Amino acid sequence: MKNFLEAAASVRPSPRQLAWFDTGFYGFIHFGPNTFTNREWGDGKEPESVFNPTALDCDQWVEALKSAGMKALVITAKHHDGFCLWPSAYTEHSVKNSPFQGDVVRLAAEACRRGGLKFGFYLSPWDRNAESYGTPQYNDYFCNQLTELLTGYGEIFCVWFDNACSPEMRGKQPYDFPRYFELIRKYQPNAVIFNDYGPDVRWCGNEAGDARYAEWAVVPTELCPYATVQTGPGPLSEYGSLDGIYNTDQFIGSLPNILYSKGLAYVPAEIDMSIRPGWFWHPDETPHPLSRLFDTYLTSVGANACFHLNVPPDTRGRIDEQDVARLKEFGSLLRREFSAPIPAQIEEIPNRPPMQKQYRIHFHTPQRNLRYIILEEDIAQGQRVETFMISGSFTGGKEYPVFQGTCIGHRKICRLSDPFSRQNPLIGKMDEANELVVTVTAARGEVNLKHIAVY
């Protein structure tokens, strides 16, 4: 048991995963025939003539995403309908036969470089237009298109796949993911690969922006069989199995689960959702409230994951003005809440057990309006904290806990008050904090917190 916990504490991210974590918050662009047919899933029979944006402006996309604080853009180069936003040499179902004619992928990639955003793409394995879909030849077709995108558009930070398929075709077209991954590693070795099963980033299990209470990046290999296994089997693996584990499970990285695993891998989660109810633009939809976007940010970027927010262009090829306004509002809120940490002296309390360390945060002046405490582990050494508690010493001699949490990982934003109400039921309205103490109550190995800040 001890040896397995030590091994679990040493499961580490790759350099590309560390760079992905630092990206944190990035945009998804769903754009294609569905934009013009007012659908979510096309059937692949749409005529190329339907795709006709009249005022396409990828620089406007980039500026809209940047206003919210995003650092990258992922475009749907091909959705399930098989229509390609670049002039692929392997199909006629693309922009080359539309009234628009231009290469949307290239325009987006160039706009990202001008605007300082990283660039990535989504290539749907499910293709409802390709005649070869459902045959062994389809994987050749897919790899040809994947190679076009990997070699023709500069540096790629993320290649995004899903496993969508119509019920009648399920199991009839095996996707050769190992072959796809080999191409990506060959042509874009720094790109992270998103897929339900890894190898670099996994799905959180829903498309509503909902996160788990504890989102571990160290997960059983049974969940992510494409990822590199970094440990031996758990001490209980001979007494049971994790067969059937999936991203919708709520306790993926918990200790009881990993003890039954055949080995552990490092595969963090992406929290994805759309700014509107649909993934493509629909004229009758409006953006979600600011509070929902902010809550999702705290439970993704602020909970050991990244936030992938879809912002769909309209039939003009521009981000809808309502969405532009919401993104600016969101960015302003994030800057207001997290731009100025409260001055404090932060020190590790000596002579504590290595797996139950304490950190003292002493304020230069007593503080009343505490909103957030940010904790970060040095995940380059491994993710280790299981549970922690934050307590405070207040004027008048009061001492009591203000927050309890589970795993920390890359970043944990501990919300003490809601920015829309400014209230925390645990802190008295007139209480002023002199200092806070962060106590790690359980960990899988020696604790390495690299950053603490209070806002």
Can you characterise this structure?
It is a single chain. Helix content is 22%, strand content 23%. By secondary structure, it is of the alpha/beta class. An eight-stranded parallel β-sheet has the order 5-4-3-2-1-10-9-6. Strands 11-12-17-14-15 form a five-stranded antiparallel β-sheet, with no helix packed on it. The longest helix has 18 residues, at 321-338. The mean pLDDT is 95.
Strand order of the largest sheet: 5-4-3-2-1-10-9-6
* Mean pLDDT across every amino acid position: 95
Query: What's the SSE pattern?
Result: HHEHHEHEHEHEEEHEEHEHEEEEEEEE
Q: Look at the helices and sheets and give the structural class.
A: alpha/beta
Distance between the termini: 39 Å
> Fraction of residues in helices?
10-25%
What is Rg? 23 Å
Name the poorly predicted regions: none
Tell me, briefly, the overall form.
globular
Number of strands: 18
* DSSP summary: helix tally: 10
How would a crystallographer describe the biggest sheet? Answer: 8 strands, parallel
- Sheet-strand content, in percent, reads 15-25%
